[in-house]
Amino acid sequence: MSEAETQPAEISEPMDTGDKEEFFHPETGEKISKNAFKKLQKAPKKEKKEKPAPVPAGEKKDKKEKAGKVAEEICTDATPKGQFKRIEDAFPAAYQPRYVEAAWNSWWEESKFYQPDVAKGQEVGEDGRFVMVIPPPNVTGSLHLGHALTNAIQDTLTRWHRMNGKVTLWVPGVDHAGIATQSVVEKQLKKLEGKSRHDLGREEFVKKVWEWKETYGNRICNQIRSLGASVDWSREAFTMDANLSTAVTEAFCRFFEDGLLYRDTRLVNWSCSLKSAISDIEVDHIDLEGRTFLAVPNHKLRATYEFGMITSFAYKVAPECARTEGEEVVVATTRLETMLGDSAVAVHPEDPRYTHLHGKFLVHPFLDRRIPIVTDGELVDMSFGTGAVKVTPAHDPNDYLCGKRNNLEFMTVLTDDGRIAANGGQFAGMMRYDARIEMEKALDGLGLLRGKEVNKMRLGVCSRSGDIIEPMLTPQWYVNCTTMAKRAADSVRNGELKIVPAIHEQTWFNWLDNSRDWCVSRQLWWGHRIPAYFARLPGEDTVNKDQTDPANGNRWFVARSREAALTKAAQALGVSESDITLSQDEDVLDTWFSSGLFPFSVFAWPNNTEDLKAFFPTTLLETGVDILFFWVARMVMMSLHLTDLLPFKTVYLHAMVRDKNGRKMSKSTGNVIDPMEVIHGCLLSDLLKKIDEGNLPEKEVVKAKAAQTLDFPDGIPECGADALRFGLLAYTVQGRDVNLDIKRVVGYRQFCNKIWNAFKFTLTYIKGFEPFAGMDQYILQSALAQPREKWIISRLNATIGEVDTAIATYLFGNATSALHSFFLYDVCDVYLEVCKPVFNDQSEGNAEQVRITQATLYLVLETFLRLAHPFMPFLTEELWQRLPLRQLVNSSKSIMIAAYPAMVENWTDATAEKNVGLVQNAIHGARSLRADYKIANHIKGDFYFRTE
């Protein structure tokens, strides 16, 4: 058997639809032969050749174009905003993402494809609709690759459900981001006007924040648009909008009225720089292996302070309690300054070394007070160190519990801004780490310093200010989460709420089964001000009626308005309203409080609006696993309590996006890649400039620059949103972090180019062809249909099934793999090649065969574009709209509202797949032999096959 006889048609070389062997007319974009192209090259030029633009400093010059190639003409789009794209103006010879992605978004929005029918949403019920709210990014933020992955997943799901005929709504929004936004505006105010927020006062400062929000706050929304997110922008929400603020006030009041919200004085994470409590998620941690010097905000300029050491010092036993003269107890601490707040030294009750000192006293070296020795088996490990532990209940979580158990005094020795308080004796007024240095000197001078040792430790650092976190005892508002947490945990246990991947269920249970009360107050000016009012009577002021004193707790009144609070206060205190002076709490609510209401506050809850009836509960919550506790759990708890409904039925948690080496992407390591840098491309010099403009230490700058130069020696090429989306989705394997190599995204940009060129190739062979309804059955039932047609349609059917199942089960990596494999290896490498001999046969008797092949090409390409649309919205819309006479088979105005492909029973042909598979194996074997024996492709040869 000869080589030719083993193939369904002559395949001398696999078609390369990249741009290596295909040639197009530089003006018309039509495919032309190589010889014709060469003639064009030799023809005299009409215009003077322009000199190439200078290469930016630090950038490599592009390699010289290969012979036979011309510089690609860059196409631009001139479509007026909101109008259908003027695709007739240009048809680039090769894929140009910037051109392809132009105009479609504004047309989609103007056409209201993203907006659902509210009445229909109510009519079809939960099973007939798909509703999501976006995890609202911070208004101060800029997109990072985690956002890009979130949007790629959510938009793929939204477009898939929309094409499957569901009433679809994806609600966008941004979070006011209390701490983050206030920090940004404060820094700007200091830089531009040399003022602090206190110089302006609360009202003027909040005005400044709103001005900043209006100027800069839409940046991240515009970036989301660049990704092609099909959110309903008419419903864009901001957590400080009036209707969302009403929901926040209502929720706070209901929690209070239900006995779940209360005020108490407890330990919190305190940022002295921000002068506020912060949540656990806003605390970063740095691990110190030993002695380390760090700069601390609000301390001496250019000074660094010592950490990673443990200091031992002695407390002298009170003379009347001492067994011997000069008897002492040695304790050790990594936070020497807190010894000013020591209210006891604890020992283990069974430690024989201290039995004689139980109930005795020690003398404080700097303050006029005595310190009791208490026994505490929970706090003290008698085998560690000296077996004696200093106890500072107001500044340490473990000491706080010890203080509660032993009824100790709680002494706060730090001010809000981190200075030693007035009760700190000779150290009062010093910044805490300056005081640490002075205390060490003073202890040494008194002969009480017993040494210092290296000590591994973990420091909590405020993610917003970089300040070292202090545990501080302050009055705050708390929500009792016990019953709500149990209900949220049970919703997963009984199957009402599904978490995907299921491996995260145990984490859910661990947190909710051991939940603590939630501190919801923050000492900020930007945010939802707490609707609680402190009442004073005539003659009372902030001194004799202090609102921070727990004894005055009965003077706090929670209400939906100042007027309602005044009425409540008058009734409770038995006086007339005119005798009462109300002061609203200065604090604002934790940002997560308003975010926790987002799935229903965006629909104007507590009002029973048409939107609330139509779109709540939502269908799915998709977000990162890192905020499972802070946001997801709180949404579930708050929704169950306030609406008696789950806010969504499924939670899909995507993994963290890391760099290709598995490192977390963070500003501190200089490896953050902005999605816009991938979409539009970025010079190496710009990547390095971004590192210079950051806040990295000099050594880290050098390392970060070296890494970026190694990874992107030529910068990042323009990839486009479709390639970025497809690349991110290709990485998603449930349960694994995404170690993203940008070069793989560049590879998917080439895949987009492959699709583009295959489309142009197809157009050259379907000129004059009129598509018609029922093409698939015409092809399959024709006596002239060849195995190649039946095979490619069968492969298309299998791919439809794979992709549909993968999306339904959140296996996006499987879906992208199926799409990529089908188009690259089945369509381009095989089917387009075997079509060529058919089209090259111009004989009259071949006309019907040509029509069948044209119909198959049209069917496969049109179906594939719809199949790939949720993943690559721009490219698929561009090409789908360019399909000749497409309205004859699909009258949808846009591909995004066209029907999603479904499997057709008689498309599957196992015999055709098996037979073509055998041919493919034979071809592969023949090519392998050619390669093994180095036989050039132009040399014809005979190959012999033995069959069993």
From TrEMBL:
Domain Aminoacyl-tRNA synthetase class Ia intervals: 104-741
Which segments carry the region annotation Disordered? Answer: 1-69
Report the catalytic activity: tRNA(Val) + L-valine + ATP = L-valyl-tRNA(Val) + AMP + diphosphate
Q: What is this protein called?
A: Valine--tRNA ligase, mitochondrial
Q: Which InterPro entries match?
A: aa-tRNA-synth_I_CS (IPR001412), aa-tRNA-synth_Ia (IPR002300), Anticodon_Ia_Val (IPR033705), M/V/L/I-tRNA-synth_anticd-bd (IPR013155), Rossmann-like_a/b/a_fold (IPR014729), tRNAsynth_Ia_anticodon-bd (IPR009080), Val/Leu/Ile-tRNA-synth_edit (IPR009008), Valyl-tRNA_ligase (IPR002303)
**Extent of Basic residues compositional bias:** 36-46
- State if Protein biosynthesis is listed as a keyword: yes
Q: Where is the Methionyl/Valyl/Leucyl/Isoleucyl-tRNA synthetase anticodon-binding domain?
A: 789-937
Sorted alphabetically, the Gene Ontology BP terms of this entry are:
valyl-tRNA aminoacylation
**Keyword terms:** Aminoacyl-tRNA synthetase, ATP-binding, Cytoplasm, Ligase, Nucleotide-binding, Protein biosynthesis
Signal sequence interval, chain numbering: none
Q: Which family does it belong to?
A: Belongs to the class-I aminoacyl-tRNA synthetase family.
Query: Whose protein is this, by species?
Result: Spumella elongata
Q: In the UniProt record, which is one GO cellular component term?
A: mitochondrion
What EC numbers are recorded for this enzyme?
Answer: 6.1.1.9
Q: Does the keyword ATP-binding apply?
A: yes
Q: Name one GO molecular function term.
A: aminoacyl-tRNA deacylase activity
Task: List where in the cell it is found.
Answer: Cytoplasm; Mitochondrion
Biased composition (Basic and acidic residues) is annotated at 17-33, 47-69
